[in-house]
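Let us practice reading a record.
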Amino acid sequence: MKKVFKIIAILVAVLIALVILFFGFIWGSIEWNRYSKKKEAIRMQKEVCDTIRNVQGNFKINVNGFTPKELKKIKFYLKRDKLIIRDTTINFTAENDRETQTVIMPFETLDIQDWIIVVIKDRTYLLSGFSYTAGYNYGMFGPVGPCECGGSSYQNVNGKPGGSGWLLKKEGLLNYQLPPK
């Protein structure tokens, strides 16, 4: 009888050890995959994303706190090397009566060092810090597909970090002197 309990105890211990080993293997595989994806993203950032010099424009800019009347004419200036090299004015029509509206930046491509100057009524916004960041598309169970460089829009508004994609009326510069053309 003792021999039967001893064999059953050994089988249960082996079974528990196999289950622990199985889950340990799964956990190690997940952690290794996460680690290797992180390393690949760092390598991609250094070797590819940081070397991109041209940014694809036409990204969305959310403006908040302006009335539809103030948004009728929005002026955009492209500043490079302390000079304005391009400018355009868009006639904007608000989609609804909400306080937040979405405007599409009119320049298709720009250099990574360029500044976008946005003038709405009497408020001026200086957008800079364009870059690309390495990342993955994530599905339900982790990364799906290869690592890619994605545009991150602008990182600075009026010289301060604030790349959320929002231009707030209260943060606009008043009486800003535009650089020469």
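A brief commentary: The chain has a mean pLDDT of 86.
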